[in-house]
Amino acid sequence: MPSGRCRRCPECPKGKKGEKGRFEPSTPRTEPAMDVRFDLPEADAFTRPYWDAAAEGRLLIRRCHAPACGRAHHYPRECCPRCWSEDVTWERASGRATLYTWSVVHRNDLPPFGARVPYVAAVVDLAEGPRMMTELVDCEEPAALRPGLPLEVAFRERAEGVTVPVFRAR
Ligand SMILES: [Zn+2]
């Protein structure tokens, strides 16, 4: 990756300087330490509004306001991934989505996922357009899942003050 480019959108031709180290690999371990969790986000100044909204039960997406674009995107980026406009703001999503694809996870050695198996990792299509990686909850019969299944957002507190958006059938 060329130095000095935005770490969130390394494809961005504007070469915005991102913060240092966000996606750099952590120190290699032979096995995960017991106190390490792999399910919690690392909020920073840019993503703080997203996590604060999630804690209040709102799902935010980013929308471009450039003429002839107007597209929404997710995950959040500072510039539009379609047209590179910086005229992008947070917007509350409807929370409605449809199921695109999924996988029932029966084994995950990264804590704390091992204590949660089986769970359903999914990719959903938000009503506003963006595709989002998430988890399906309240899913009693994974065999009954099908593409296009109508979903709605829900929220789960994973640690004190850390809430993540998930989805369930509606
Ligand atoms: Zn755009």
Would you give an account of this structure?
With 170 residues, the protein is mainly beta. The protein has two domains: 45 residues, no CATH class; 74 residues. Helices cover 5% and strands 32% of the residues. It contains one helix and eight strands. The strands form two sheets. A five-stranded antiparallel beta sheet has the order 6-5-4-7-8, with helices on one face. Strand 7 and strand 8 form a beta hairpin. The chain is globular. 18% of the residues are buried. Zinc ion binds next to loops.
Please give the largest β-sheet. Answer: 5 strands, antiparallel
Element string (H = helix, E = strand): HEEEEEEEE
Number of domains: 2
What is the C-alpha radius of gyration, as a whole number of Å? 17 Å
Shape: globular
Summarize it:
Helices cover 5% and strands 32% of the residues. It has one helix spanning 48-55, and strands spanning 60-64, 72-73, 88-92, 96-105, 119-126, 131-136, 150-159, 162-169. Strands 6-5-4-7-8 form a five-stranded antiparallel β-sheet, covered by helices on one side.
